[in-house]
Design a protein that fits this description.
This protein is of the alpha/beta class. The chain contains four helices and seven strands. A seven-stranded mixed sheet has the order 1-7-6-2-5-4-3. β4, α3 (about 95-100) and β5 (about 105-110) form a beta-alpha-beta unit. The radius of gyration is 14 Å and the shape is globular.
Length: about 160
């Protein structure tokens, strides 16, 4: 299937977090979210929203120094931050258990391990537009995510 790309604008951190939380409604075990964006663009805020949507109760922060953090919610949530890797990685470094595991895997700076990502990874790019405004470009081949992008998220509705 040909990838589809959708663009969303969020106006503040709370909205970025809610966007991610709502996205969990269509995520399934084994899904991989491949995030890209400059430092401070909203990747970790997005990760917090995913965790909240999955029912993770503990605080979520970027695993910049540990590379991987595992959380338990309705299903496991694996949060990888590969920023500290020196360059593009030629070997998977044991990431397969997360990338092809039983939970949702979110990878910050995913281009550094792009050769190891599944073909159906959901690519999400964050662009800073203003102090708190973000452009989020989501690219996917998954029909359930495509349908959600078309009509499943209303950024004006934060009621749930």
């Amino acid at each position: 299937m040909k990838p589809s790309t959708f663009t969303f604008i969020t106006k503040h951190e709370r909205e970025t977090k809610e966007f991610a939380k709502h996205l969990t409604r269509v995520l399934e075990s084994g899904d991989v979210l491949a995030l890209e964006g400059d430092l401070g663009a909203g990747k970790t805020v997005f990760a917090k929203g995913i965790a909240e949507g999955l029912g993770v109760c503990e605080p979520v922060n970027s695993p910049t120094f540990t590379i991987v953090k595992e959380y338990q919610g309705k299903i496991p949530f694996y949060h990888l931050d590969v920023y500290r890797l020196e360059s593009v990685v030629d070997e998977p470094l044991g990431f397969e258990e997360y990338l092809y595991g039983e939970g949702i895997c979110l990878v910050e700076w995913a281009s550094r391990i792009s050769d190891w990502l599944p073909d159906d990874a959901i690519e999400i790019q964050f662009l800073v537009m203003a102090d708190t405004h973000r452009k989020i470009k989501l690219t996917t081949v998954l029909p359930r995510v495509i349908n959600w992008c078309k009509d499943g998220w209303n950024h004006e509705d934060f009621s749930d």
